[in-house]
Design a protein that fits this description.
The radius of gyration is 21 Å and the shape is elongated. It is of the alpha+beta class and about 280 residues long.
């Protein structure tokens, strides 16, 4: 039985179906040594190459996983960096026949919630503008924020890539020149939260994403650590984009990560206790 190449690539964790179509159109894929076309269908006896290297694909429906990760500041959201900076992918669990897809990138100086999944369709749906998934951030602002500034930010301001706004802003306290706000928006444009505040002459001194859709960042998930979403969390995330949950209760109960967070090389380590 054959299936469309871009669908198999997405199922195998190489990216969303739309992104895979772009790869095919760019000439990055071959089937049995011949350039692939968008409409091509493939079976498990074909030799598929990406950028000249043979790759393994998953033709059977696989058991997908979703990780929630607490990103630290100073860590990048890309696999390859010429400057050798630490990245969020380095210490994620190793996979066979699929790869981790990042959902909702954060810039170098922003911390907080990220998702990683092996389900390309879910990743595409969560990031697509039409889904209008809420993102909530905790932001510390340096400057004199008055009522007019807040009104401008919820009414909409013109940025270089179009009008943008917060769906809500809540004052959560602070002292002196620095003040904390909780903001919600339904877009994921590059540096959008920072650019909105900067449009009003304000400087963002700290920024952390605390919620993405129905899933919030837990207080006990330390920076630089991750865990698998449980069944109810995964179900809520799939439902938020009108999809059926692909993570079964049985598979979740067999997960070795379900009750623990996992430390990576970017997370702080406790100092040994000295005996008195």
């Amino acid at each position: 039985m054959s299936e469309k190449l871009h669908k198999i690539l997405a199922r195998s964790g190489y990216g969303s179906r739309r992104e895979m179509e772009r790869w095919i159109e760019a000439g990055r894929l071959t089937i049995n040594g011949k350039p692939a076309k968008t409409a091509d269908r493939v079976s498990d006896n074909e030799k598929i190459a990406l950028d000249g290297k043979l790759i393994e694909l998953t033709f059977d429906e696989q058991q997908h996983r979703i990780l929630i990760y607490n990103k630290a500041e100073g860590v990048i959201c890309t696999r390859d960096d010429p400057d050798g900076r630490p990245d969020v992918f380095k210490d994620l669990p190793k996979l066979q026949g699929s790869r981790w897809i990042i959902v909702g990138r954060l810039d170098l100086n922003t911390s907080g919630l990220l998702f990683f999944t092996t389900d390309g369709d879910l990743a595409n749906a969560l990031m697509h503008p039409s889904s209008e998934i809420e993102r909530e951030y905790s932001v510390r602002v340096l400057g004199d924020v008055d009522g007019q500034v807040l009104q401008n930010l919820v009414s909409g301001v013109e940025l270089e890539d179009g009008v943008a706004k917060f769906d809500s802003i809540a004052d959560v306290g602070g002292t002196g020149a620095n003040h904390w706000y909780s903001v919600v928006l339904k877009e994921g444009r590059k540096r959008e939260v920072r650019r909105l505040w900067e449009s009003q002459g304000m400087k963002v001194s700290r920024l952390m994403r605390t919620r993405f859709g129905p899933v919030a960042l837990m207080r006990n998930l330390r920076k630089g650590t991750f865990r698998d979403l449980d069944y109810s969390e995964a179900d809520a995330l799939y439902s938020s984009v009108g999809m059926q949950n692909k993570i079964t209760k049985k598979a979740f109960s067999q997960s070795t990560n379900k009750k623990k967070t996992t430390r990576n090389s970017h997370s702080p380590r406790r100092r040994p206790t000295r005996k008195k």
